[in-house]
Amino acid sequence: MRSGPMSSDQAQESVVEERGLAPAGRGPGPGSRAAALHPQSGAVGAQAELAGVLSGQLPLFVYKFGGSSLAGADRILHAAALVRDARRQARLAVVVSAMRGVTDRLLSIAQSLVEGAFGLARAEAEFLLYLHNDALRELHLNSDEHAQVKRDLQSLGRDLLQDLPLQGKRKVDAALFDRLASFGERFSARLFAAALAKLGVPASRVVSSDFLLTSDEFRNAKPDIAQSKRNGREVLRPLLEAGIVPVVTGFIGAARDGRITTLGRNSSDYSGAIVAHVLDANELVIWTDVDGVYTANPGAAPDARLLSDVTYAQAYALAASGAKVLHAEVLPLAAKTRLVVWVRNTFKPHARGTRIGPERAAWSEAVAEGAA
Question: Which CA distances in Å does 246 have to 236, 249, 278, 311?
Fold first, then answer.
C-alpha cells in the first residue's frame, strides 16, 4: 500500500509520449465528440461543462469498461477512442475489468490446484499469457512501446507462473484464489494504457491494491471507503494534475497486511464507483454490452422497455424486481454521494443509455409504471 504522495517520477513512470491517430474505423471520429461524451447532449452535459468553466476546471468523469468491451485488441482500441474523444471536454479516469472470460479461467486455475492437477493449471496459465500477448501484437504499437509492454506482460506472467508448481503440494486457500484472480485486471490495465498511448493519450496503469484498503475477507472483501479515499487521492491526483489518464484495475484491493483481495465476482462496477468517490467525480459511466437499464431482463421479458432516466429509488425497486441494474454496492455509494451514474453501450457510443441519479432530469422520458 502507498503511504505517501506519488512522486513526479512515479507519476511519469508508465507514461508513453507517442502521439498517433486512431486507426480508421475504430471508435467515433472527431465529428462525434458530443456523442462520445456519454452523452454531453442536453442539460446534464451543459451543466457539467458550465460548472467546469466556472470553477476553472473541466468536469471529471470516471469511465468503467467491462470485460466484453475489452475482448481483444480491436475492442480495446475502440474503448480507448471513447476516452480520447471525451478528453476534449473533460478530465478522465478509467477503471477496467479483465478481458472477457479471463477471470473464469484464472479461477479454474485455482480449482485445478485444489484438485492437484498442476499440469492443467500450468497449461491454462500459459494460454492466458498467449491470449494477452496476442492482444498486444494486434494493438500494432511502435517497436519501442511494444517491447516495453511485452516486458511488463512477461513480468506479470512470471508472477503468475510462480504460484503454479509443476508437482508436489501447494497450499490453496482463499487468499491464493484472490491473488490468481487479480491477474486479469492487471493484464488488461497494462494493455488499455498502451492503447491510449497509441491514440496520443498519456496514460498510466494503476493497480488498485496500491490504494484500495479492504478487510481480509478473501473473495468478498469489504472496502474501507474513507481510508481508500485518502490513499487514492495521493495515488491518482498527481496523475490527473499531470494530464495523465489513470487506468485503474477494477475488482481488487489489498488487506492491511498487503495481501491482494477481491471485492467479489462482477465487482468492477463497484470499483468504478469507489474511484469516482475517491476523485469526487462529476459522473461515473459504466460502458457495457447492453443499451442501458430495462424495466425487466429483456432476455426473459420480450416486452421489457429501455429506461432513459431513473432515480436511485427507482433503480433499487427495479433491482428488487429482478431487473439487472448495477452491482449491489454501487447504488448505496452513489446515493450517499449523489453521484450520477450512466449505463451505456460501448458498441453504440451514439446511443444515450440510462442515467441514474438523485432525481430525474427534467428533459427525460417517463419511466415505466411500477418502477417508482
Answer: 7, 10, 13, 29
